[in-house]
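Anyone up for a design puzzle?
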């Protein structure tokens, strides 16, 4: 249904749906004249601007659905990450040869971390999980449930946002192929050029969690 509002510039603002598109249109008329617009004859209207195409609105709705229905990773998802990463108080090199500490925290340039306690490791974990969650909310364009959200967060925590962004997993998921996306999880089992049993176990846990109702 369309609504009209008289503006101070001698124009009528039409707010509504024209030809199936949401947007705004301005139509000229003289201020002293009574606006007499036949809304059944849209061919007489001069639409000058359409804002927020339907595709953009759909994407926004998808993101709202993810963000509103799932506030953050669940305790089960967090447990999966902690068990998969393990806890180390001292700095070590991970399977890819990168300096790591705590619950799989990759030590960044400028971080002088040689030894930490569990409380500090928990803080680092929360920060790293938040980074992974932001990637999920940024790149996933379809509705997902809590289990799928947790599985994907574990995956991104382990592999990084860039790998997820460029993955076939994300492409299949956003095309609506949830089963295909779950199968893509199990392909990411290599580190340092080697297939690792630990990664196979983790990916299988993520796959099962992803498919759980």
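Challenge accepted. My sequence:
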């Amino acid at each position: 249904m369309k609504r009209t509002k008289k503006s101070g510039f001698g124009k009528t603002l039409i707010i509504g749906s024209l030809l199936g598109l949401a947007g705004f249109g301005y139509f000229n008329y003289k201020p002293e004249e009574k606006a007499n617009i036949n809304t059944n004859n849209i061919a007489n209207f001069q639409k000058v601007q359409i804002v927020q195409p339907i595709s953009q609105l759909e994407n926004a709705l998808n993101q709202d659905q993810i963000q509103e229905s799932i506030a953050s990773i669940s305790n089960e998802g967090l447990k999966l990450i902690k068990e998969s990463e393990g806890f180390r108080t001292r700095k070590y090199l991970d399977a890819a040869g990168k300096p790591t500490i705590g619950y799989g925290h990759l030590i960044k340039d400028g971080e002088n971390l040689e030894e930490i306690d569990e409380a500090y490791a928990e803080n680092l974990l929360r920060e790293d999980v938040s980074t992974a969650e932001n990637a999920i909310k940024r790149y996933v364009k379809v509705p997902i449930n809590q289990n799928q959200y947790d599985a994907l967060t574990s995956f991104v925590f382990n592999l990084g946002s860039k790998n997820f962004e460029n993955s076939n997993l994300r492409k299949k998921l956003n095309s609506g192929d949830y089963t295909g996306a779950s199968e893509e999880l199990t392909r990411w089992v290599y580190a340092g050029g080697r297939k690792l049993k630990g990664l196979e176990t983790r990916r299988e846990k993520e796959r099962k969690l992803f498919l759980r109702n």
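A detail worth pointing out: Residues 3-51 form one domain.
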